[in-house]
Amino acid sequence: MVDIPQSVRDRLESLPHVVGTAVGKRRVDGEKTDETCVVVFVDRKVAETQLADEEIVPETVDCDGEELATDVQEVGDVTALSVEPAQEAERTERVRPAPAGVSMAHPSLSAGTMGSTALEAEDGEPVVLSNAHVAAPEPQASEGDPVLQPGPEDGGTEGDEIGRLREWSEISSAEPNTTDSALIAVDPDDVDDEVLGVGPLAGFSEPDMESDETYTKSGRTTGVTTGELRGRDARIEVGGFGGGVAVFEGVDLFTSMGDGGDSGSLIGVDDGEFRATNLLFAGSPDATIGIPIEAVEAEHGELSVIDGDGGTGGDEDGDEGDEPGAPGGPDDPTGGFEGGLRERLEAEYGDVREEEGAFRVGAWPLDLLVVPGEDPGWAAERARGSDADAAVIAVPAGTEGELPAIPAGVAVVEVDP
């Protein structure tokens, strides 16, 4: 793909009404041609007679020795969009397990979209993907904050927590940004493996400027819509971040595919299976802006789709492993004492998810880790290393005396499920 020199971008983006530049295909009467060009995005087109000679976009520019034509395309005012009424009521309801494409937000925000099905982060934790401006309000966002499904705009309250904020990208107004993304830690049992109205998420791929592929998204506000890729490697001004403008670079621009509240949706190619290419985060009535999944993974690490069984499979040799918490391992939380313990926790707290052989419990406002103690030594070590607000070792009735030294601040409870 052609690289636009920084000096060329700076010159073009200094011109009146220019809000961004990208590599794309020339469009004639709205139809894409085969000619690669430098796309110059403007908030509105004006007649050349209204501009001074030095304010007119040049017909060609030099890109490292290659003379490329320019194509001025109108995109309007690109912003992180304000929430609009949803077109499909089911997307604003509480759903468990929740499919991608439904309402989600931090308790202090309004509503955006839960973009993905369950994914596995590099450290193995199950997560879903959305925008930072949907799940992590700055500057007050904190790791472990609850994230609601549906979002508050759609009636979500503390009882609708679907996960906890794990990490997010910080948006700068002083220097270019590459992503607006957040990972929310979830219990995969609370997340459906479907993208609502589209089907299962099969994986990730890269947008292709040379193809005529149609791109699809499923979002909280406008549901399933399709569009075309207009430009890659865009640098563009985006309003609505802290009341100001932030510059994003390396993003992709599509024809209009969404509205306010669709932020966080995955954009991808659906050719019998849905493969995501971008994370939608901004737009205008004329355009939709997406972050390449490659940039999302550069920020958060590699993400893998969790299959419909709640996992990504066993070891290469087919074994499931002997680590605590693995199916068949010493603390398999799927049956026996652990299974009964989970049932008790779910009945008491509702929000329970498995985490490395233990249970993470949303005991509002605390983040509580409950470690099954049938393997006493491992349970004590797991509790000692917890990053939860509080940790508890749960043991079968009559066995508390068999535990080794317990870390300070960790409680032990006997349970008879």
Terminal residue distance: 61 Å
Second-tier CATH architecture of the largest domain = Beta Barrel
| SSE-based structural type | mainly beta
Shape: elongated
Note the beta-strand portion.
Answer: 35-45%
Mean pLDDT: 87
Q: What proportion of the residues is helical, as a percent range?
A: 10-25%
What characterizes the major β-sheet? 14 strands, mixed
Count of the separate structural domains: 3
Instruction: Please count the beta strands (DSSP E, at least 2 residues each).
Output: 27
Q: What is the CA-atom radius of gyration, in angstroms?
A: 24 Å
Q: Spell out the CATH superfamily of the largest domain.
A: Trypsin-like serine proteases
Quaternary structure type: single chain
Return residue spans where pLDDT drops below 50 for at least 5 consecutive residues. 313-334
Q: What is the fold-level CATH name, i.e. the topology of the largest domain?
A: Thrombin, subunit H
The CATH C-level class name of the largest domain: Mainly Beta
What does this structure look like?
With 417 residues, the protein is mainly β. The chain folds into three domains: 69 residues, no CATH class; 217 residues, Thrombin, subunit H (Beta Barrel), CATH 2.40.10.10; 80 residues. Helix content is 10%, strand content 40%. It contains five helices and 27 strands. Strands 1, 2, 3, 4, 5, 13, 14, 15, 16, 17, 18, 19, 20 and 21 form a 14-stranded mixed beta sheet that branches. Strands 10-11-12-9-8-22 form a six-stranded antiparallel beta sheet. It is elongated, with a radius of gyration of 24 Å. About 5% of the residues have low confidence. This is Nal1 N-terminal domain-containing protein. It holds the Pfam family NAL1_N. InterPro entries: Nal1_N, Peptidase_S1_PA.
